[in-house]
């Protein structure tokens, strides 16, 4: 006698449709609230998408809903980071990859500019020192 757990089941979706588990819409609501806080209070936010329990198709659906804006950036710091503004001003996608090209972080940042783009104070001080040296302004 055949048992129910021995029956093979194949789930098919119509061609051209994206399977999603419905997690994109709650994240869109979270982004909406974060954008409201940023507009009213200047509070920047970051949502770590890799820490969320996305099912197959959820990440793609979220990125589709967010769309693409006019700004795209690429950084090379211990691997390539791709940064783009979504179709919603102030909502950014930051995709970090290591030297081997493997994704190490995927984040949504809400703010004027993603934090990774800002120069660090230590780097600015180092730049002043190097510029002074190049201009012969460094004290002996």
Descriptive report:
Helix content is 29%, strand content 21%. The chain has three helices and five strands; from the N terminus they run αβαββββα. Helix 1 (24-41) crosses helix 2 (58-66). It is elongated, with a radius of gyration of 22 Å. 15% of the residues are buried. The model has no long low-confidence stretch (mean pLDDT 87).
Short description:
With 140 residues, this protein is an alpha+beta fold.
Mean pLDDT: 87
- Sheet with most strands: 5 strands, antiparallel
The CATH H-level homologous superfamily of the domain at 24-114: HupH hydrogenase expression protein, C-terminal domain
User: What is the end-to-end distance?
Assistant: 91 Å
The proportion of residues forming helix, as a percent range, comes to 25-40%
Rg (C-alpha, Å): 22 Å
- How many strand elements? 5
CATH topology label of the domain at 24-114: Ribosomal Protein S8, Chain: A, domain 1
What are the segments in which pLDDT stays under 50 over at least 5 consecutive residues?
Answer: none
Count helical runs.
3
Text of the CATH class of the domain at 24-114: Alpha Beta
CATH architecture of the domain at 24-114: 2-Layer Sandwich
Structural class: alpha+beta
Q: Biggest sheet: strands side by side, in what order?
A: 1-5-4-3-2
Coarse shape = elongated
Strand content: 15-25%
Order of helices and strands: HEHEEEEH
